[in-house]
Amino acid sequence: MSTTKIEWTESTWNPSVGCTKVSAGCQNCYAECMARRLCAMGKKGYENGFKFTILPERVKLPLTVKKPTRFFVNSMSDLFHEEMPFEFLDQIFETIKNTPKHIYQILTKRENILQKYFCNHPVPDNVWLGVTVENKEAKKRIDILKTINAPIRFLSIEPLLDDVGQLDLSDIDWVIVGGESGPGARPMQKQWVLDIKDQCDENKVPFFFKQWGGANKKQAGRTLLDQTWDAMPNSPKGQLPLVLDDGCLFARTAAAPMGGREGCNVRVRTQE
Question: Is residue 8 part of a domain?
Fold first, then answer.
């Protein structure tokens, strides 16, 4: 476990490492480069480089953290990788359930495995579930995410590789946008970002602008329209109140938290 420079979280927890490419957003994977570097340095846990590897010795690490913390789970992998045993996922979620003071942000590009797992498992109250939407083709992940009854559902539109067009943001609680960074970074156009922000504003969805990216992301910065955009969703238990850019607090009503999602874990969308 370690602190991180990722702007929308506080710490990372990687009970597994390594991954394989599944879509366009994986082309210049930062985690792959870092894993190979850590392997060359002899870092424990990265003996296999970027080959998918479960690390049972890390499963209970959050239990040792006393301060309430927002964890990005598997920043160096995908929690719902094809080689991830569901029995190991059960152990991970047992730790999550046993640490309700923490918040766990889980992001995947494997929406079908995400759905399959949560067909038979409840989503803990302290879990935020998200999918990556790097281009128009990846928008299909949003519909799968919406079938899962999670306290917070979010989209990571990073790396933003083209104009994603119209987004159905109903039942989405948070949107992160960012450009690709590092060598060979594919450029992101400002209008693509503004179009997404406008849709978030129209739907009252918190908007977080992470970075412009590019070969030198520090130099490019993360200001948009002369300011930073750091809105966060309000958690069901109120751990993280959201302050909108106009200074007003955004809160859910107690009678209908998170849009009133109650009942079974997976919702079936019906035609009207």
Answer: yes
100 phi, psi to nearest 5 deg: -65, -15
DSSP of 100-138: TTSEEEEEES-HHHHHHHHTSSPPPTTEEEEEE--SSGG
Q: Could you list the residue range(s) of the whole structural domain that residue 188 is in? A: 2-259
pLDDT tens-digit readout, 63-90: 999 999 999 999 999 999 999 999 999 9
Encode pLDDT of 187-209 as tens digits: 999 999 999 999 999 999 999 99
- Least Cα distance to 19 among 33, 9, 7, 5 occurs for 33
Cα 33 from Cα 231, distance rounded (Å): 29
pLDDT recorded at residue 240: 42
- Among left, alpha and beta (phi > 0; psi -120 to 50; other), residue 218 is alpha
Structure tokens at 198: 């406008």
Measured CA distances, 98 to 16, 64, 68 (Å) = 19, 11, 13
**Burial class of residue 211, CB neighbours in 10 A (0-12, 13-18, 19+):** buried
What is the DSSP pairing of strand 249-250 with strand 70-73?
Answer: unpaired
φ/ψ (deg, to 5) at 146: -70, -20
Measured CA to CA, the distance from residue 240 to residue 176 in angstroms comes to 16
pLDDT score recorded for residue 263? 32
- Residue 153 above 80 pLDDT? yes
Tell me the sheet residues that pair with 272.
none
Residue 272 lies in a domain: no
Question: Which residues pair with residue 156 across a beta bridge?
Answer: 132, 176
Q: Say if 269 falls within a structural domain.
A: no
> How many structural domains comprise the chain?
1
Residue 130 lies in a domain: yes
Q: Which of 24-33, 172-181, 244-253 has maximum average pLDDT?
A: 172-181
